[in-house]
Specification:
Layout lengths: L2 H23 L12 H28 L4 H17 L18 H22 L6 H27 L6 E6 L3 H12 L5 E7 L15 E3 L4 H7 L4 E4 L6 H9 L7 E4 L12 E5 L2 E5 L8 H36 L5 E7 L5 E7 L9 H10 L22 H9 L6 H7 L3 E3 L25 E3 L1 H5 L6 H14 L2 H22 L1
Parallel strand pairs: 1-2, 1-4, 2-3, 4-5, 10-11
Antiparallel strand pairs: 6-7, 8-9
Length: about 500
């Protein structure tokens, strides 16, 4: 080892030793400020992203319009950041594990709209500048695009750091607690690092959770939080009474810990749940199931036709290449046609690029569905509904399945009106043999290419969990939900491809 390398190694060891001393000298078991604190890291990263995005939008708008107005921009810049703070655009990542930039879009739009009006008012009151209509219009569009992009990059960078991870303890090691642990373990993007369970009488652990241990009993929770520098506690039912659980959480009130509660009727709580109160008593509001009115159907159909037509036009060269690959790999048709069930259980022929040989026995898939429909049965890494049959899948089929490009022809089904862009997965008729009565509610909305379970869980969910999310979508449908799911779909596909690479 050279002298320089030895010096650097020694310096690193000293630095790591000082960091360890800093942690040890802080409050018992607590991480030193800024070391493993998402609540410290992410707001600052997002603040910097907003400044960079606004500055970039201003500079580009200035180059395009030829007007400066630098002083006016600098005067109003703190106001932009204050408006973003009021809209909660810096505070949600620490408390909401699944918060993403898509969830910020409405808030960013409000900030840009209010900010532009603030510039106009400031210009009239101070006379510091005279921004033209063209520049304001260009600046508004650029600011929305640049801020959104900068925030996405900032979050992606934060997720790669150790400071983003939140050490988590789950109270309750029963079926629900282990379900929470399984979901967390399948989604590293949540940034939750499970330390273990706390339970007085734990159930036998699932086979895929062998690495997690029971740390102790609920009475030891405060001590465990301090010992392991825990930042999040998830209460997922335990054998303790409600009064004991309340006292347990009150004991955490001064520990600076995020507490998440799994509601007792969590199966009924969907994306449209609201929280309101009666004299301070918190209530979960479950709206009645959405009914498709004529105007709702028209708007959803208009969105489907517009997006699918444009997507098919843009994807035409890619589809031609895929068709050539499919024909080149094995004899048979380019498309795989299969009867599926759509709105009102109406049968239609779904189109996909063929990924298997033409003589593949389809009865094997029926047996597979019967097996995975059992409660608690996990699925293979190839996908929830795609049976792993290496001998039957073509070389192009493996690539198509991995990228989900085999589903691109379903845009034709959307254009025909058989499907929608967003909705429950179009199921095969024999799959309904495993349904419970409430699962048929999924047929009250059109089937879709993407949907709630595809975006939220993809292959990580069990068959039952996927059905429950389809029902939740049917009850919670709205155009806003459709837009959010559409925007999240490309992110999920990239994330899936990265995790399987």
């Amino acid at each position: 080892m050279s002298t320089l390398e030895h010096t650097l190694a020694t310096a690193l060891e000293v630095k790591e030793g000082r960091v360890a001393e800093t942690i040890a000298s802080s409050a018992p078991g607590r991480a030193a400020p800024g070391l493993r604190r998402r609540a410290w890291l992410v707001p600052r990263a997002l603040l910097l992203a907003d400044v960079v995005g606004l500055s970039g939008a201003f500079l580009l708008a200035t180059l395009v319009s030829g007007r400066s107005g630098l002083v006016l921009f600098l005067v109003t810049l703190p106001g932009w950041l204050m408006i973003a703070k009021v809209h909660g655009l810096y505070d949600r990542d620490a408390s909401r594990a699944d918060h993403s930039t898509v969830d910020d879009l409405v808030g960013v739009f409000h900030v840009v709209t209010i900010g532009v009006w603030a510039i106009i008012v400031a210009a009239l009151l101070t006379g510091l500048g005279h921004p033209g209509l063209w520049k304001l219009t260009a600046f508004s569009a650029l600011a929305f695009a640049f801020i959104t992009t900068a925030r996405a990059c900032a979050r992606a960078g934060c997720r790669r750091t150790r400071s983003y991870a939140q050490k988590t303890i789950i109270v309750g090691a029963g079926d629900v607690g282990q379900l929470v642990a399984r979901k967390v373990s399948k989604h590293p993007e949540y940034g939750l690092e499970i330390v273990g369970f706390v339970d007085r009488d734990p159930k036998q652990r699932r086979s895929d959770l062998d690495n997690l241990t029971v740390l102790g009993q609920p009475a030891q929770l405060r001590e465990l939080v301090e010992r392991f520098a825990v930042e999040r506690v998830v209460v997922a039912f335990s054998n303790d009474s409600a009064e004991e659980t309340v006292e347990l959480l009150r004991d955490l009130s001064g520990a600076d810990v995020q507490v998440d509660l799994v509601p007792r009727l969590f199966e009924m709580v969907g994306p449209n749940v609201t929280v309101h109160s009666l004299e301070g008593l918190a209530l979960f509001g479950l709206p009645p199931a959405k009914r498709f009115t004529s105007s709702s159907r028209l708007l959803k159909r208009a969105l489907d036709v517009a997006v699918s037509a444009v997507a098919l036009f843009l994807a035409a060269p890619l589809m031609a290449f895929i068709a050539w690959r499919v024909k080149h790999d094995s004899p048979g048709p380019v498309f795989f046609r299969q009867v599926r069930l759509g709105l009102g259980m109406r049968e239609f022929t779904a189109l996909k690029f063929r990924t298997m040989k033409v003589d593949t026995d389809q009865d094997e898939h029926r047996k597979y569905i019967q097996e995975v429909a059992e409660a608690g049965v996990a699925t293979n890494a190839n996908g929830l509904f795609k049976l792993e049959r290496k001998d039957a899948i073509t070389s192009s089929g493996r690539w198509l399945r991995k990228t989900s490009l085999d589903e691109v022809p379903q845009l034709i089904n959307v254009l025909r009106g058989d499907m929608s862009l967003v909705g429950p997965r179009p199921c095969i008729p024999y799959e309904t043999e495993t349904f419970k009565p409430h699962h048929f509610a999924r047929f009250s909305v059109p089937a879709g290419i993407t949907g709630l379970w595809q975006v939220s869980a993809r292959a990580n969910s069990t068959f039952r969990e996927a059905l429950e999310m389809d029902v939740a979508y049917a009850h919670a449908w709205s155009l806003g939900l459709d837009f959010r799911l559409l925007l999240r779909t490309p992110i999920q596909l990239v994330r899936q491809r990265t995790s399987t690479a």
